[in-house]
Amino acid sequence: MTNTVKTLLGSVRQYKKPSIITPIFMLIEAFCEALIPFIMSQMINEDALAGGNFAHIAKYGGVLLLLAAVSLTSGALAGRFAAQASCGFATNLRHDLFYKVQKFSFANVDKFSTSSLVTRLTTDVTNVQQSYQMCLRIVIRVPLQFLFAIIMSFTINANLAWVFVVIAPILAVFLISVARVVMPFFRRIFKKYDALNNSVQENVGGIRVVKSFVREAYETEKFQKAAEEVRGDFTKAEKILALNNPVMTFFINFAAVLISYLGAKTIIDSGTLSGDFVPTELSALITYGIQVLSACMMFSMIFVMLTMSFESMRRIAEVLNQESDLVSPENAVKTVENGAIRFENVSFKYSKTADKYALSDINLDIKSGETVGILGSTGSSKTTLVQLLPRLYDTSEGNVYVGGVNVKDYDLDTLRKEVAVVLQKNVLFSGTIKENLRWGDESATDEEMERACRFAQADEFIRAFPDGYDTFIEQGGTNVSGGQKQRLCIARALLRKPKILILDDSTSAVDMKTDALIRTALKNELPDTTKIIIAQRVASVEHADKILVLDGGRIVACGNHAALMQTSEIYREIYEEQTRGKGAEEEKGGEQV
To answer: In terms of Cα–Cα distance, which of 82, 59, 80, 62 is closest to 70?
Structure first.
C-alpha cells in the first residue's frame, strides 16, 4: 500500500501548496471549536453566579465571537483549498492515466480490457478524488477534534472525563468491526463495475447489430443482471453500515446520561462539581463528549471510504506502474530507408502462457515497392501478421526486418510513421473531414488532401456534401456510409506518404469498380511504397506481385496468381468458388433480361 500511495502522490505536483495549507486551517478550526464550550462555561459561571457582571459577559462574548469567526473562516478556507487540491489531483491523475494508456501496446490493453480502463479513468479516479479531499480535511480534523475534546474535558473535570476515555475505545472497536465486514463487498463492487461498463460498451458499440437481430430484450436483461449484482452488494454493505447511526446515538446518549448521573451524585455528596456552578460545566462536558464520540463516528466513515478508495488506488497504481511491452531502444534508428520487409523464422502468440501459436514458422521476403496480397480463411492470422510490421506486437520467436533493420531497433514513432495501416475496423473521429484527414499529416495542404482523396476515390462524394471538406463527421463516422468511411481512412493513410501501406480488408465495403480504381491509383502513384493488401476477394489481389495464402497461422502458398492457380489447391478453390458465384449471377441476370 505504501508504494501505491507513493505512486499516486506523484500526480499531486503543482497542487502541493493547497494540500499543505488545508491541514493548517483544519488545525486552527478544530482548536477553536474545542475552546468554544470551555469559554461558554466560564462566561456563564462568572456572570450568573458572580452577580451579573456585564464586563465579563462582554469579554467572554467577544472571545466567543472571535473564535467562531476564526473557526468559520478557517473551515471555509480549508474547504476551498481542499477542493482545489483534490480536483487538481484528480485532473493530473486522469491525465497521467490517459497518457500512460496511449503508450500501451496492444498486449497491455488486452491485459486490462477496455471496460476496466474506462472504469479506472472515471469511477476509480472519482473515488480517489473524494478520499483525497477527505484526507486533507476530515482525516486531519478527526484526531485533532478527539485530542482537543479529551484535553478540554480533563481541564474541566478529570474524574468525569474518564467516561469518554472508556466509552470511545468501545465505540471505535464496534465501528471498525463494521467497516471491516463491509470491505469485501466494496472490493467485489469495483470488479462488477468493470462488467457493467463492458455491457454498456458492447451494447452502444454494437447497437446496429443488436437492433438488426432484435436482441434489445437480451441486452437489457444482460445489463439488468450486471446492475443488479452491483446493487445487491451495495445494499448488503449499506445495511451493515446502517448500524453505525443507531449505535452512535446510543453511545452519545449513554455518555450524556452517565455524565449527568455522576455529576448529580457528586452534587449530592459534596454540593459542588469543582467549586463552580454545576449545570454549565456539565453542559460543556456533554458537548465535549459528543465531539469525542462524533470523532469516533467520523473515523468509522473515513475507514469505510478509505477502504473503498484503497481498491481504487490499487487499480489506478496498477495502470500507472505498468510498463509498456514495447519501448524504443537506446540509440534507436530514426530513419527507415525503404519498404523492404523480411520475416525470419517468426512465431507469435498473444500470451506467453498460451498453448497455441497464432503464427508459426513465418519466413518471407518482400522487396521495396512490391504489392503483396494476403488471402486466408477467417482466423488464419492475416491481421496478426501485418501487426508485427509497425510493432504493435513483438514476435515471440524470430525477427521482423523493415528496410533491412530489425523493427525492435527502430524508434517507435519513426517506424509507425513509415508504416501506415488502414485497419479492418475503420475509425473516424468527431470533427471535419479535413481534421480527420490531417491525422495522416498535420501540415497537409488542401491540395495534398484533395489529391489523396482522388487516389482513394473519395473526392467525388466529399464534394457532393454541402460543406465539402469542411463537412462535420459525427463520432465514429455515423453520418457516412461504410464505403465512404473506408475511402476516407485510405486517403488519411496516403497523406502520410509511408514506406509501407497496409490495407487490412479496407475495401470490403466498396464495389468492384471502385476497388479496382483504388488499386490502380496506388500502383501508379505510389510505385516506391510497399503495399500489402489483405482481402477476402481474389479480384482484389490477383494482380499483386506476390500473393500469400495463410491457413492456421502458416504460409501454405506463395507466388503470383498464375503460379498459385497451378500449385495451390486452397487458392484455386477460393478463386473458382468466387468466379463460379460471379458466373451464376451473370447468367441469372441474363435470364431476367
So the answer is: 62
What confidence tier does 592 reach under pLDDT thresholds 50, 70, 90?
A: very low
DSSP calls for 41-76? HHHHHHHHTTT--HHHHHHHHHHHHHHHHHHHHHHH
Phi, psi at 478, each rounded to 5° = -75, -15
Own/partner long-range contacts of 114-120 (Cβ < 8 Å, ≥24 apart): 114/198, 114/201, 115/194, 115/195, 115/197, 115/198, 115/201, 116/194, 116/197, 116/315, 117/319, 118/197, 118/201, 119/190, 119/193, 119/194, 119/197, 119/315, 120/312, 120/315, 120/316, 120/319
- As given in the structure block, the three cell numbers for residue 365 are 521476403
H or E element that contains 397: strand 397-402
Alpha-carbon gap, residue 150 to 142, rounded angstroms: 12
Alpha carbon 454 to its chain centroid, in Å, reads 39
Beta-strand ranges (E) seen in 242-358 are 341-348
Secondary structure letter of residue 215 according to DSSP: -
Cβ–Cβ contacts within 10 Å for residue 241, how many? 18
d(CA 163, CA 282): 13
pLDDT digits (tens, 9 = 90+) for 148-196: 878 877 877 777 778 777 877 887 788 778 777 877 777 777 777 777 7
Architecture (CATH level 2) of domain 341-592: 3-Layer(aba) Sandwich (3.40)
Handedness of CA 372, 490, 443, 477 (dihedral sign): negative
> Do β-strands 472-473 and 341-348 pair in parallel, antiparallel, or remain unpaired?
unpaired
Please give the CATH number for the structural domain made up of 11-320: 1.20.1560.10
pLDDT in tens, 237-271: 878 877 777 877 787 778 778 877 777 776 666 55
For the sheet containing 530-534, what is the strand order? Answer: 419-422, 500-504, 530-534, 371-376, 546-551, 554-559
Q: Where are the domains of the chain?
A: 11-320, 341-592
CB 30 within 8 A of CB 141: yes
The residue type of 407 is V
Distance of alpha carbon 45 from the chain centroid: 60
DSSP state at residue 38: H
Is there a contact between 569 and 562 (Cβ–Cβ < 8 Å)?
A: no
